[in-house]
Amino acid sequence: MQKSTVRWDDFRVFLAVARQKRLGAAGQTLGLDPATVGRRIAGLEKALGRELFDRGPRGYLLTEAGRGLIECAQTMESQVGEAVELSGGDPEQLSGVVRIGAPDGVSHYLMIDACDMLSRDNPGLRVECVSLPRSSVLSRREADLAISVSPPTAGRLTVRKIADFDLRLYVRGEILAARPPVERLEDLSDLRGIGYISDMVFERELDYYALLGRNAEPALTSNSLITQRRWCQAGAGLCILPDFIAREHPELTAVLPGEIHLRRSFYMILHQDDARVARINRVADVIARRMRLALSDGLP
């Protein structure tokens, strides 16, 4: 293979392996068997005269040459996607792959119906929802769009606010029922706190445990909000949770809801290179609209 014979499809295979890090997983997204994916990567490396991946126990990891190629390949991907969408076909039908990065609380509680609807209405569309809490995943192109609780301040990104959401301090209702009426937070000082691991708080807007006025960090910590919620459900202690999560679990009761009340916002973030790709923008529109509906207590 000569450099002049390198085709866009070779870079499509390259991007799939860079994202999935395994030939088998990349093959599944491409509709190819792992052996074919391996041959395509080897052919591309031969054509370019450089190794693009280090092969090892952790899978296929980009070399320096591969990292240098990734942004160019991603730009090609966006341009090809835009060209395909403008070339004809059913304008109402979406096709291709869209990967959405979101915190686990969002993906578990606010995106299930939206992703299901997108898939059902667009049989040619593959929707990938991954728990990637940081908006920086877009700069590394690990996702096509991301949902975050803080707008990024750097990078070639476009940002729009989705909606506000409220958080309160929750505990299992049986714990409150067995105690005298709670008049202030100190009345529950014997209960353990549940929260994020302090050095793994991925968004500054989530670093709210200090607002409770406790000197010590929570006794039970996790970077997963779902794990925190399950501890709270089990009666392990107090936890700050979004109202949209707590309302799905009637065994949880808000503590001093009029006094302990936080408000945060969700943001939709896209890479500027994808600003004109209809597929990604339409998926973002559907996700944002369904999230607003869910957060307003509307039917999903």
UniProtKB/TrEMBL annotation:
The keyword Magnesium does not apply. PROSITE patterns: HTH_LYSR (PS50931). Gene3D superfamilies: 3.40.190.290, Winged helix-like DNA-binding domain superfamily/Winged helix DNA-binding domain. SUPFAM superfamilies: Periplasmic binding protein-like II, Winged helix' DNA-binding domain. Residues 6-63 form the HTH lysR-type domain. Keywords: DNA-binding, Transcription, Transcription regulation. InterPro entries: LTTR, LysR_HTH_N, LysR_subst-bd, WH-like_DNA-bd_sf, WH_DNA-bd_sf. The keyword Plastid does not apply. GO terms for molecular function: DNA binding; DNA-binding transcription factor activity. PANTHER family: TRANSCRIPTIONAL REGULATOR, TRANSCRIPTIONAL REGULATORY PROTEIN. Belongs to the LysR transcriptional regulatory family. This is LysR family transcriptional regulator. The lineage of its organism: Bacteria, Pseudomonadati, Pseudomonadota, Alphaproteobacteria, Rhodobacterales.
